[in-house]
Amino acid sequence: MTVPLLSLQGLTKAYPGVVANDTVTFDIGEGEVHALLGENGAGKSTLVKMIYGLVKPDSGQMLLRGQPYAPPEPRAARADGIAMVFQHFSLFDALNVAENIALGMENPPPMKDLATRIREVSEAYGLPLDPYRTVGDLSAGERQRVEIIRCLLQDPKLLIMDEPTSVLTPQEVEILFQTLQKLRSEGTSILYISHKLEEIRTLCDHATILRLGKNVGECTPAETSARDMAELMVGSTLHTPERSGREFGSAAMDVSGLSVPSPSAFGTALKNVHLTVRKGEVLGIGGVAGNGQDELLSVLSGETVTEADAVKLNGEAIGQLGPVARRRLGVLAAPEERLGHAAAPDMSLTENAMLTGSVRQNLETNGFLNWGAAKEFAETVIKSFDVRTPGPENAARSLSGGNLQKFVIGREVLQDPDVLVVNQPTWGVDAAAAADIRQSLLDLAAKGAAVICISQDLDELMEISDSFAALNEGRLSAPRPAAGLTVDEIGLMLGGAHGMEVAHD
Amino acid sequence: MISLEKRPQPSRAWSLATPLVAVLATMVFGGLLFAMLGKPPVEAIRTIFWDPLFGEFAFYYRPQLLVKGAPLVLIAIGLSLGFKAGIWNIGAEGQYIIGAIVGASVGLAFYPYEAWYIFPLMVMGGALGGWAWAMIPAVLKVRFGTNEILVSLMLVYVAEQLLASASLRFLKNPEGFGFPGSRNLQDYPSAFNADLIAGSGMHWGVVAALIAVIFAYVLLNRHMLGFHIRLTGEAPRAARFAGVNPSRLILLCLGMSGALAGLAGLFEVSGPAGQISIDFNAGYGFTAIIVAFLGRLHPIGIMLAGGLMALTYIGGDIAQSNLGLPSAAIQVFQGMLLFFLLALDLLTNYRVTLRKSEVA
C-alpha cells in the first residue's frame, strides 16, 4: 500500500472541561478529497487547527508522507505544503485583491508580478478574479476565491477547506467543485469540512465522521445515504421538521415600494422591495450574504425607520415605529449576528432576556425593571429550547454559537409574535438543534403567525418555506410558491451567474 | 512565555479586587519613587493615607475629606453614566465652572435681599448652567456627528475665559477695592451653603453627592434607562435592536453629567470657595474622570474612590508641607494610581497564563 499523504494517529487534545479530540486516527491519501463530517462542537475545528499548526496536540502524532510532522505554527505548516481556507474570510475591504494576497505572504513579489500570477492561477483553475478590484466590492463567492487563490499560490499538497459552500449560490458551488476536482486530478489532496451531506456525496472520495471528539465511523460518501451519514453524525435518529397543510389568513405584514439607502460604505441599499406575508405563512428569503439581508431585517424590526406607509402590519402603517413599538404590536425579530446584535456578549442571559422581552413579557413597570421575572423568562427559554448553560446568570459570550442561537430564537418565539422575522436562524447550529429551531418556526406559523425567514441555507428554506423570494443586490424577487421550485430556478432567482463574469483585462 | 487568555466571562472577583490591588501597587511603587527622591517612603505613605484620617490633626482634615470628596463624587457619578454608554464627556470642568457662575449670578441678583427660596433657586441655576454647557457638545454630536471629547474639552477653556470675565467684570464685587472676584457668598446668609452641622464639612453638596450615588445605583440596576445606558456601552447594535434611540441617550447622558457638574460648581462657590474668582476651578472636573474609573463606573465604587482621591489630595498636601515632597511627585503618585488601575483592569477579562515555550 502506498504511504498516505497525511496520517493522523491517536490525536488527542483536551481543553479545560472538554475533550475536543479523543484519539482521532485517519489517513488522507494523495490526490484524495477527504470529507470531515461532524456537528458543531464535534471537534472538526480543533482537528484542522492541529494539522495547520494553530493548536498543539496533547498526545498522538501526525505523519506527513511517513515523516513525523508537528508544525509549531501555521508558517511551518504552509512551508510543508499545507494550506487552509477559513470559513470566515480575513480580508481587508478597503484593499484590492492583490494587496490582500500580498499581506498574507512571507516575501511578496512586486505587485505587478503578483497580479500576473494571480491572473494565471485564477484562470488556470476557472476562478476568474481581477487582482485590482477592491475586496469591499466583491461578492462572498469572489472573496472566497481570493482566499483560495491565496492558498493555490503556495502550490499546496493538502488544501483544508472549512465549510466553503455556506456562502455560495448553487452555481458558485458548481464552479468551486470543478476547481476542486481539477486540483485533485493534479494530485492535490483536499480535506473538506462540511455538514452538507449531498455536497459531500458528490465531491468526496472518503469521509471521516467525528462525534464528540471521537472518530465514530468512516464511509465512502457516494455509497452511503445522506440520512445514514447524518445519523452517524448526530448519533441518533433524526426527525425532519413536519409541516402540516396550513390555511393562510389575511396579509399580516406588507412591504411596498421600500427603498432605503445603504447605511454604510460597504452596506447594501434596498431597492423598491415589495413583499407580503400572510398569517400562517412562512416566507423564505434566500440570497448570498451581503445582498441586503441585514438591511431588510433592520427595516422590518424597526431599527431602521422608513416612511410610515412602506411597512404595514394588518393594514396599519408601522414604517415609522421603532423596535419597541413594533414589539408591542407583535412584530419580533432575531438578527443574524448573535454576539453584539441579537445579544450583548458580556451581559447575562437574564439581561439578554430583558433586551427584547421587556415589552411583551411585562418585565418592566413604569420603566422599573423586574429582574425576577426576567430571570424566569430566561429560564423558560433555556428550558424549552434546550440551551446548554449552567444558568441564566452566565454571560451570553460564554455560550457556544449554537446554544446562543437557540436562546436568541427561543426568546422571540416564546413571546408569541404575530410576525417573526429571523435572519440565518440555524447558522452554526448542529443538525439536531437546527431541526428543533425549524420545527419551532413551523409550529409558530401553524398557530397563525407570519414568519419571514431570511437564510443562505437553501435546504433550510426549502424545508420550511411556503413561498420563496430571493434578495440580490438589495432587490427582492417576486415571491413564488416554494413547492415545486427546482434548484436551478432558485439559483437563477438568487442572481444566477451573479459575479461569474470572467475577469477583464 | 506569558500570554493572555480571554476569560469566558468577566471575573467578578477580579473586578472587585483590582482597585485594592491598584492602591497597593501604587503604595509600593510610590514608596520607591519617594525613596529615590530621598524621602522616607514609609513615612510618606503613612502621611498620605493615614494622617488625614487618624493623625494628630485629623479633626481638621476629616471635614476636608468631605469638602473635597463631595464635588468629585457628584461629578464622577454624572460622568460614569455617560462613560458606561460610551459617551465621553471630558469637559466636566467647564460645566462645573458655568454651573458656579450661573448659580452665583442667581444668588447675587437678589443681593442683599434675604429669602428662603434664594438658595434653592441658585441650586437650580447651577444645574441648569452645567446642563446647558453640556448640551453644546451633545447637540453638535447629535446634529453634525462631531466628537464630543474634543468639543467638551475645548469648552473647558471657553468656560475659563468666562470665569475670568465674571471675576473681573460682570460679577466683580463693587465693594471689593478693585480686587478681582465676586462678593463672598459666605457673607450672604440666604446664599451661603453652610455646613449642616458646624465644623463637620457636611454641606448640601455632600448630601447631593449621596443622593446622586443612590439615584445612579437605582437607575443603573433597576431602571430601563440605566439598562439602556449599559447596553449601549456593551453592544451599540444590540442597543438599537432593543429600541434605544442613540441621539436621545447622548442628550440625556451629557445633560445629566453636565447638570451634576454644574451642581458641584454651585455648591463649591456658595460654600467652601465662597466667591467666583479667576482661579476658582481646581481641576475637580478632570480628577473626577479618574474617580469615575477608579470606582469602576459603579456608584458605590465611585463614592469610595472619591474618598480615596480626596485622601491623596489632602495627604499629598500634608506630605508636601511636612516632608517637603515636590508637588510633581504627588501628581505622579496620583497618576500611578490610575495607571495601575487601568493596567490591572485587564485581569477582569483576561487570564494570565504561563505557557512553556513550545518548541517543535
From TrEMBL, chain A:
Classification via InterPro entries: AAA+_ATPase (IPR003593), ABC_carbohydrate_import_ATPase (IPR050107), ABC_transporter-like_ATP-bd (IPR003439), ABC_transporter-like_CS (IPR017871), P-loop_NTPase (IPR027417)
CDD domains documented for this protein: ABC_Carb_Monos_I, ABC_Carb_Monos_II
Keywords associated with the record: ATP-binding, Nucleotide-binding
Domain ABC transporter: 6-237, 253-498
Pfam families cross-referenced by the UniProt entry: ABC_tran (PF00005)
SUPFAM superfamilies: P-loop containing nucleoside triphosphate hydrolases
SMART domains registered for this protein in UniProt: AAA (SM00382)
One example GO MF annotation: ATP binding
Domain of life: Bacteria
Keyword ATP-binding annotated: yes
The protein, known as: ABC transporter ATP-binding protein
Source organism of this protein record: Parasedimentitalea maritima
Highest classification ranks of the organism: Bacteria, Pseudomonadati, Pseudomonadota, Alphaproteobacteria, Rhodobacterales
Automatic annotation (TrEMBL), chain B:
Protein name: ABC transporter permease
PANTHER family the UniProt entry points to: ABC TRANSPORTER, PERMEASE PROTEIN, GUANOSINE ABC TRANSPORTER PERMEASE PROTEIN NUPP
Organism, scientific name: Parasedimentitalea maritima
Subcellular location(s) per record: Cell membrane
Signal peptide extent: none
Location (main, coarse): membrane
Keywords attached to this entry: Cell membrane, Membrane, Transmembrane, Transmembrane helix
Lineage: Bacteria, Pseudomonadati, Pseudomonadota, Alphaproteobacteria, Rhodobacterales
Membrane topology note: Multi-pass membrane protein
UniProt keyword Transmembrane, yes or no: yes
Pfam families: BPD_transp_2
InterPro entries to which the protein is assigned, alphabetical: ABC_transp_permease (IPR001851)
Transmembrane domains' residue ranges: 12-37, 65-83, 95-111, 117-140, 149-171, 202-220, 249-267, 328-347
